[in-house]
Amino acid sequence: MSQFRFRPVSGTPFVVMNLVAINVIFFVAKILAWNSQQLDLGAVLGLYHPFHSDFHWYQFATSIFMHGDFRHILFNMFGLWFFGRMLENVWGAKRFLIYYLVCGIGASLIFLGWETFTAVNSLSQYGDGWALLREYPPSSPMIGASGAVFGLLIGAALLFPNSVINIYGVIPVKLKWLAILYGAAELYSGYRGASGDNVAHFAHIGGMIFGFILVQIYKRDKSNFY
Question: What is the CATH number of the domain that holds 158?
Answer without folding.
Answer: 1.20.1540.10
